[in-house]
Amino acid sequence: MNSKVLHFNNIKVFWILAILCIGLFSMYFFFINQISQNAAHGEAGLGTLSNLEYKVSELEFSYISLKNNIDLSLAHSLGFIDTSKTSYVSRTALGQATNFASVQ
User: Fold this and answer.
1) Which bin fits 79, alpha (ψ -120 to 50), beta or left (φ > 0)?
2) Distances (CA, A) of 57 to 54, 64, 68, 81
3) For residue 78, what is the DSSP state?
4) Rounded Cα–Cα distance for residues 95 and 75 (Å)
5) Model pTM?
6) Which tens digit of pLDDT belongs to each residue from 21-66?
7) From residue 51, how far is each of 41, 59, 61, 65 by CA, in Å?
8) Which DSSP symbol is given to 33?
């Protein structure tokens, strides 16, 4: 009966585990650093976002105030005129326009 016995060199195992632990700790600290930096950038982005929302609300208010000032006298002053004859366009429904009896 042939059997092989594996002999581990304890020094090699120690250094492999030590390097592995150092690598894992360095990755851990790297990712913690990235999380803190992303949080800081996120808060800066929130400040910018609040400024932009403020500008949008100002623009919406000015749009509504300008929209409320439009009337017939403003249209006449800008060169628009009233129409003398008003006509509306209508179309027939699709079911009424199709004649199924002609299809053979």
Assistant:
1) left
2) 5, 11, 17, 34
3) T
4) 41
5) 0.43
6) 999 999 999 999 999 999 988 888 888 889 999 999 999 999 999 9
7) 16, 13, 16, 21
8) H
**Rounded to the nearest 5°, which phi and psi values hold at 93?**
-70, 155
Q: Which two tokens stand for residue 55?
A: 């500008």
Residue 81, CA atoms < 13 Å, CB-side half-sphere: 3
**Chain centre to alpha carbon of residue 100:** 49
List alpha helices for the chain, DSSP H: 10-68, 72-77, 94-97
Tokens found for residue 63: 């749009």
DSSP 101: G
**Predicted pLDDT at 77:** 92
Instruction: Quickly tell me which residue has 């509504």 as its tokens.
Output: 64
85 DSSP 8-state letter: S
Say how far apart CA 21 and CA 66 lie, in whole Å: 67
